[in-house]
Amino acid sequence: MNREEYENVLSVHRVPTAKLRPEFDPTTFPFETTAELEKLPNEMIGQKRAEKAMEFGLAVQQSGYNIFVVGPSGSGRLTYTMDSVTKQAKERKIPNDICYVYNFENPDMPLAIHFPAGLGQKFQREIEVLLIDIERNIRSAFTSELFEKDKRKIFDDFRNEIEELWEQTDIFALENQIKIERTPEGVETIPLFFGRPMDMKEYELLSDANKDLIKERERVVETKIDETVYQILKVEEKLRKMITQFMMEAAAKSIEGLFQPLYETYQENKKVMEYLEAYFHDIVRHYSFFVEPEQDEQQNIMNLLIGSKEKDLHRYTVNLFVNNRSLKGAPVIYETNPTYHNLFGKVEYRGSLGSWVTDFSLVKPGALHLANGGYLVLQAAELLQHPNAWTRLKRTLQTGSIQIENLYEDNGVVPTSGLKPEPIPLDIKVIIIGSYYLFDFLSIYDEDFHKLFKVKVEFVTVMDKDKENSWKLARFVKNYVEREGLLPFHRRAIAKVIDYSSRLVEEQSKLTTDFQEITKVLVESSYWAKVENETVVDKQHVEKALSEKMQRSNHVTEQYREMIKNETIMVETDGYRVGQINGLAVLGTRDSVFGIPTKITAQTYVGKSGIMNIEREAALSGQIHNKGMMILTGFLSGEFAKNRPIPLSASITFEQTYSPIDGDSASSTELYVLLSSLAEVPINQGIAVTGSVNQWGEIQPIGGVNEKIEGFFHICSERGLTGYQGVIIPKQNVQNLMLENDVVEAVKYGKFNIWAIGHIAEGIEILTGISAGNIRNEKGKYAPNTIFSRVEERFTKMFESAKKK
């Protein structure tokens, strides 16, 4: 084609300046600065689907309708979740308090008692006062004159009964000429001689027959003594029982009046009544806990060390496990560290004389207990990092009860007493916040996931750039700057923020929902306005903030550009070369993404090996890139091998790349360089290309179009713009253009170009200045001297050459 035709081709596909960076019109807003805007409550922006899903999920109370909030970090998912849940919680009733108390029948299984909110603490204090009164009343009863009189009478009666037994034994002994003497060492029997004790000399003078008679009498008396001692032991046992019964009756009589008010107060609570009954009877049985026995000094020291009395009386206290007294509605708990014990509670231990001990008062609640009757909010990433937490959470939701268990009990890491607190019935809505990846991961690998989390609240990454969302974004700026103490924003500054929002999502008709990035710009823009002693943030301050933000993170970018400038990385931006083209790639760090040109070269020759992807042979090519190379073979075969095979061998490579390459955004570029090599037509090195291609030669859209254009522009700008340089992009990517101002200005004044195409034929014409000629005539031939005819001629020569071999 001649120069005029070529210029016409360039003009047809050139993207108008107005489409390179359509800017938001600040006059859309009737206010001058955000200070004039009315402050409104925080509202969700661009997430109508998520709002409806959240409303539904919070309203449904049936089991399994827990919520999983999906979305990227910074989209406001946590803030919105907490606001929605808190609002809903205010409309629900306050859940019961929960107290753990001593189980008098099975101490290893503490009992859980539920009270209306606020009454748990009241019950705890009432039991504390009760215990004090019990101790006072029992001590008072046991030191009264009437108690001592009655107790003394019991002892006197039994003492008389014992003396009577001994008197009868003494009489029996005397009848047998034996005297009984009771000493501290025991009972002795002494033979009598004419009514007086016989001494040893007299005994020795007796005949053997008399001695045997005395021994027989002693045996009979000793038998009687044994019977008497046995009877005395029975009397003493009876005495102990009577004293115990007497003491218990005295204790019961002294404290029964203390329980009556509690019986009246809690008569409707069956579990409290059962507990108070057991409490009363245990006090009566263990009245000795309240009596100060006489102890030796060593025993007093031991009791001081182990707290014997305190330990005994501790069973009569109440563990206020969950106290909802201060709540105004259902609880909302956001657990930031969802470890096993933080979620499900634990039984703590304390050291005592070299061992670990515990009791019901050391049972501590977890987030599930505190949120019971309300809402528990968790971060999926944090939850899944803690062993057993996810599995146990599922089991708890499935069973509908919370069981406190020692995580390390089975492994014997901590010696335990086997305490098993009574499970707590569960009534809760769990809301988990996580990424798309974690949602998909749980969906695929956990069959119970969708049974337990039936509501998905999905936060999208983009929203429409319409009037409603623009206004909401302006109000968001208003609320944020006032909350953070920033300067007011002029409407021109807000317009720049809106433009930046579109740049973040690379779509002219959309805005980002990543408000974390927006808030960074707000803070930094206000800073630069204050540096200039301004009272309002204007558009130049936003531009300054964005420029400084880029400057802080573009160190790697500058290194690449410097290597291209000094030709360490070889990139040509003018002249023509056969089998060589500038492709565009996007590289990135954690806080910076940038585009750079990459030289792609191709060699074609006769053979049967097909297209060799050098990156693939070097194990540097990803699966998607390999797929793109196969598509090239499909296009060439479909276009040029309809009547005979093409004995093609070719090699394509990204020059000076030493790291893995993936993606198919350079597949059209690779096809151009193949066509150039086959047709032996040079390509303009001042033009870079991006875009994928299908087997029909149609150009498909790619990502990172802004960074790719800007990356090539900056290289050309450093070397000097000629007016013939530019970038070819897919026509579908025009809607993604939000280019930097310097690129737009260069295009506006004809120093740089951006072309948008839809087919490989359109691109090859721009690159070479030669007609593509991709349409065959009625004879099935391409127009002569076109790119496609030259490629066909080359394939014909290759075929003939291959036949000769």
Low-confidence stretches: 294-307
Beta strand count: 30
Q: Helicity, in percent?
A: 40-55%
The gross shape turns out to be: elongated
Helix/strand/pairing category: alpha/beta
CATH class of the largest domain: Alpha Beta
**Average pLDDT figure:** 87
Give a written overview of the molecule.
The protein is α/β, with parallel strands linked by helices. It folds into four domains: 24-75 and 460-553, Helicase, Ruva Protein, domain 3, CATH 1.10.8; 91-125 and 324-458, 3-Layer(aba) Sandwich (Rossmann fold), CATH 3.40.50; 139-288, Four Helix Bundle (Hemerythrin (Met), subunit A) (Up-down Bundle), CATH 1.20.120; 559-804, 2-Layer Sandwich (Ribosomal Protein S5, domain 2), CATH 3.30.230.10. The chain is built from 28 helices and 30 strands. A seven-stranded mixed β-sheet has the order 23-24-22-21-26-29-30, sandwiched between helices. The chain has a five-stranded parallel β-sheet with strand order 8-13-16-1-17. A three-stranded antiparallel β-sheet has the order 3-2-7, with helices on one face. Strand 21 and strand 22 (593-606) form a beta hairpin. Mean pLDDT is 87; it is low at 294-307.
Task: Using brief descriptors, characterize the structure shown.
805 residues; alpha/beta; Helicase, Ruva Protein, domain 3; Rossmann fold; Four Helix Bundle (Hemerythrin (Met), subunit A); 4 domains; seven-stranded mixed sheet; 28 helices; 16% strand
